[in-house]
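Module 6 notes. Inverse folding takes a fixed backbone as the condition and produces residue identities as the prediction. Think of it as a translation problem where the source language is geometry and the target language is the twenty amino acids. Below is one complete input and output pair. Work through it position by position during the lab.
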């Protein structure tokens, strides 16, 4: 977990983080916001957990007994409403009281007036508030950068000079109350840069870093980027020599130059066919204007069939001019995306409906699958197309919930997941005439077979994390379990170990994993493989815990199989995990040739 020494309130249903500024003025602002109706989460310790956008306060508010003998949460002041968690949607960075026109954050005509702050600057300011020193155990700089950028990507980021009068304070509170989060999360792509051979240079020619002995991390936003140099970086000046991590805000051009430099210096562990449309938005995938030349000649993958590349990804590629397509194809892609967004709206509405009914019979579903990726994933919401609504229900509660949903007009179908299905191997698919296109699947466990028999379903419920979906707080599958579930789903229908044997090869322009041939029942789809990569924890500790969990639940072989398939076509999985997955199948730790070579070889063989 990552600790940020910043206060956080809930304002109009959204988390508001306040960083910077004199502590006394920050405290006054908090009190004014609370008097105006804001709820309290934490005064100085915001806790971020990897794999979820939900944030918590530490230490948790204490439970005290009031004058009437009733227990209540102790707040910062009398009458304060307390929340246990929130989803951050607003971030305010205050300038110092003494800051004048030369302030690096803002140059405001009137104190208390809000001005936009870039995502890289906001991320940098929050990382300066890390609660642990470099000598204490905590997330590495790369992990901290990724976790903080995820928080920033879903927030409206603003700055203001610290108010010095009551009028200025009131004006700032009024502006904050009118501030809304962005309509959707923004794109933030993590790049792992190998810059060992060359130093990083500022535009002005001043040296930022000398030698690099390990990978640097850069978060590329649309308007700028934030570079976190390798933790073993050597910093030198005329006065001192020391080993310290540095963060640097870069322009888009500077960021793209570093990405190109890293490409020249080393070949990273990713497919040789690069870039691929299906990898857009994932780690190391170029997204800026300078990358347009890399995408030339690539075709838009087929859109509209189950398991295809998400329609939102195709729309982004076209809108950024990274892919070119005839107008008819662009219209088809846009139409598919409109339908997908409409379906996502209906599924979210269905969830609200089921939650209300479930509350009546004291049932708490756990959400997993594509809906969870939309509302609590790493990428913007429209990068994931929602299929059915997957809900995990305790086996002893399913019949009770089905009966109550039946009184609401829901029609249920029973589906056996195995020939000799036990109670936990039965899935219930529900539909309602008012939303005929929405399928609500009730599960007692995440999968059939040994996994379903060995696992204790209570573990999924007990470790579930709170996730905000619209105005509701729901229980979402724990990030560790999300990765295991994604791997199980991707390998459930797998019939071939090597994805290269199931790639549909077309022309040289579109031979980049545009579709997957069906072998037997089906091969893992692009959407399933993307979910494997997106749910894989970035920190080695959490990922090792997930692998251990899969072994304990009897799903280790499925996890390793899914990892091997995903690594063949998508970047982002840790090297050690891929090597372990390949060794599990008796394969060399490293691939001998990349995807592009294998595709060309297969095409050559077919032409003979």
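Target side of the pair, the amino acids:
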């Amino acid at each position: 977990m990552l600790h940020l020494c910043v206060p956080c309130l809930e304002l109009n249903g959204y988390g508001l983080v306040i960083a910077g500024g004199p502590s006394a003025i920050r405290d006054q602002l908090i009190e004014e916001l609370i008097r105006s109706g804001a709820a309290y989460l934490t005064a100085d310790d915001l806790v971020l957990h990897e794999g979820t956008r939900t944030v918590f306060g530490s230490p948790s508010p204490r439970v005290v007994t009031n004058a009437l003998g009733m227990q209540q949460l102790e707040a910062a002041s009398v009458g304060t409403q307390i929340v246990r968690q929130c989803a951050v949607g607003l971030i305010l960075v205050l300038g110092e009281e003494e800051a004048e026109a030369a302030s690096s954050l803002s140059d405001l005509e009137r104190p208390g007036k809000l001005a936009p702050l870039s995502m890289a600057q906001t991320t940098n300011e929050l990382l300066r508030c890390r609660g642990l020193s470099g000598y204490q155990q905590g997330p590495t700089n790369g992990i901290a950068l990724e976790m903080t950028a995820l928080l920033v990507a879903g927030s409206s980021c603003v700055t203001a000079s610290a108010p010095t009068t009551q009028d200025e304070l009131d004006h700032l509170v009024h502006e904050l109350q009118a501030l809304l989060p962005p309509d959707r999360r923004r794109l933030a792509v993590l790049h792992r840069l190998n810059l060992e051979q060359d130093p990083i240079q500022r535009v002005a020619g001043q040296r930022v870093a000398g030698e690099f002995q390990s990978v640097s991390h850069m978060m590329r936003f649309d308007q700028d980027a934030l570079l976190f140099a390798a933790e073993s970086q050597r910093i030198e000046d005329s006065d001192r020599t020391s080993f310290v991590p540095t963060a640097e805000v870069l322009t888009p051009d500077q960021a793209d130059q570093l990405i190109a430099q890293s490409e020249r210096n080393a070949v990273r562990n990713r497919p040789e066919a690069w870039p691929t449309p299906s990898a857009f938005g994932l780690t190391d995938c170029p997204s800026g204007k300078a990358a347009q030349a890399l995408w030339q000649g690539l075709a838009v993958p087929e859109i509209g069939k189950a398991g295809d590349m998400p329609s939102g990804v195709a729309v982004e590629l076209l809108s950024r001019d990274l892919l070119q397509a005839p107008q008819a194809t662009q219209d088809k892609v846009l139409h598919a995306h409109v339908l997908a967004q409409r379906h996502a709206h209906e599924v979210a509405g269905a969830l609200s409906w089921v939650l209300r009914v479930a509350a009546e019979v004291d049932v708490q579903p756990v959400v997993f699958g594509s809906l969870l990726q939309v509302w609590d994933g790493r990428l913007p919401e429209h990068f994931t197309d929602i299929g059915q609504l997957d809900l995990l229900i305790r086996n002893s509660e399913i019949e009770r919930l089905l009966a109550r949903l039946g009184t609401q007009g829901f029609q249920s179908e029973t589906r056996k997941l195995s020939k000799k299905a036990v109670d936990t191997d039965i899935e219930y698919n529900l539909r309602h005439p008012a939303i005929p296109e929405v399928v609500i699947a009730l599960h007692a466990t995440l999968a059939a077979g040994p996994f379903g028999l060995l696992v204790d379903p209570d573990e999924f419920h007990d470790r579930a994390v709170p996730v905000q979906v619209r105005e509701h707080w729901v229980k979402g599958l724990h990030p560790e379990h999300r990765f295991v579930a994604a791997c199980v789903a991707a390998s459930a229908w797998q019939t071939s170990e090597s994805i290269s044997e199931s790639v549909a090869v077309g022309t040289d322009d579109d031979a980049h994993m545009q579709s997957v041939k069906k072998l037997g029942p089906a091969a893992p789809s692009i959407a399933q493989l993307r979910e494997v990569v997106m749910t894989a924890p970035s920190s080695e500790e959490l990922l090792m815990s997930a692998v251990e969990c899969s072994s304990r639940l009897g799903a280790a072989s499925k996890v390793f199989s899914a990892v091997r398939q995903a690594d063949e076509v998508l970047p982002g999985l840790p090297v050690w995990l891929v090597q372990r997955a390949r060794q599990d199948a008796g394969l060399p730790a490293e691939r001998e040739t990349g995807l592009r070579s294998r595709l060309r070889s297969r095409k050559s063989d077919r032409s003979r």
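Reference fact for the lab report: The first helix runs from residue 23 to 35.
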